[in-house]
Write a structure and sequence with these properties.
92 residues; mainly beta; 2 domains; 5 strands; 40% strand; binds zinc ion
Amino acid sequence: MIRWIGIGSRWNNSRTPWPKKGVRGGTPKLTAYGIDDNGTLHTKRITKIEALLLKTQLYKRKKFVCLSCRRSSIFLVKHKDEIPPCPYCDSD
Ligand SMILES: [Zn+2]
């Protein structure tokens, strides 16, 4: 399962005709960045409409500190109030 983290955009100036070339011209290229379960980075070309939909489903990186074992770890969560289980406590 790929978890999408962010959306990047850049202006493609090389493939635009002359009158549109420059700061004002160019066509936007939207890419979505995501992380797999194994930790590998994935990129995907998306359209403008897909970017609007993905913006609502992005995962945020959040740091958690377990109160029982006092160890911090980083998780990807969708909502602010979500509390994931501690990986250190479950392994013991
Ligand atoms: Zn813990």
